[in-house]
Amino acid sequence: xxxxLPLEGLKVIEMASVVATPIVARLLADxxxxxxxxxxPAGDLLRPTGVxxxxxxxxxxxxxxxxxxxGKKFTVVNxxxxxxxxxFWKMLEDADIFLSNIRMQSLEKMGxxxxxxxxxxxxxxxxxxxxxxxxxAEKNRPxxxxxxxxxxxxxxxxISTPGSFPLRPSFAFGxxxxxxxxxxxxxxxxxxxxxxxxxxxVTTSLMQSGMWCNAVAVMNAQPxxxxxxxxxxxxxxxxxxxxxxxxxxxxxxxxQNDYDKDRQLFADLFHLPELLDDPQLVSLASMQRAGRVTExxxxxxxxxxxxxxxxxxxxxxxxxxxxxxxxxxKDAYLNPQARAxxxxxxxxxxxxxxxxxPRPPFDFSDFDRREFSxxxxxxxxxxxxxxxxxxxxxxxxxxxxxxVI
Length: 405
Fold this sequence. Notes:
The protein is of the alpha/beta class and 405 residues long. It has helices at residues 20-30, 63-69, 82-93, 104-110, 114-117, 145-153, 155-158, 173-196, 206-213, 215-220, 259-269, 274-277, 284-289, 293-304, 309-318, 329-332, 336-340, 382-388, 393-401, and strands at residues 11-15, 34-39, 73-76, 97-100, 125-130, 200-205, 241-245, 251-255, 323-325, 344-349, 353-358.
């Protein structure tokens, strides 16, 4: 049965490496777009990166590369040659979207920056991804997830507690978050193009995304509000909505949002009658004015540590209090609710291995998604793509001899 794919008919040319931009192209491919990926002869830098994450990196067994590149056609085209540049122009003739994270100074040298090609391809959506953006003194600075997204925004150090080692996020966290939002911008550009008949350049950067994703902290740390970061372990904004350690060493996040409404419930549940009796605790604001937040957070911790995370999970569930017991990456793929929501594609790899690969977090009632497929070797689809552009086998063979492809 054929799938009903919402982006079917869109053609995307991707000239990018590592994670963020390839993830955008992967998402477009998942929902129907034809994505042609152009790699250098050495291949995407992500292909061997799995070694650093204790993952295999063979052509038929590369789950990290598969995560970012499923559903694409893989080509090698040398744009430093005249023939290679002509192949590239042919690819763009009927393309809807060009995606790249090559630094703009290099694209300009190749003559494939937006200003150089916009008149030749007036309906093209030119989507560019960078570390720090295309303006300012640092526009050519190299940027990665942990640097441009996390360190520049303040998140790595300020999300930790004072004196702690900086937050070391899971690999590609900021890349994937930024790619997911960049997808929406690109599709907005497509909608605009379909209305006006004109293409456009759409850009984003890891730095911009880091500022956006940490927006509340970036605001309330400003001097007119003065919130101090990093925040002490026992200085939460609301001690009834914080993280507490349980008897078994696990943590529970209790996320109560209506102090006035739930004061009676929490007084009873955590055996803290002062919530009702002490006038300084009549509201969250009065608790803060009296400087009692740290004291009360310690009292909450003293109560929570007396029971296991499983016991607290049952107690809080029975009172319909929003909460969550700390999970672990090693167990995430087994989570029953995640399985019920089909959060994973279970992919068979060599050696009788099945890997649960997280899937895009979107569901449609009347549209489908392509089935996950493993990727192939560098340039594995070059000949097929060139034939689709009208090249004959003899020309393709000649291009190989000349190292054009």
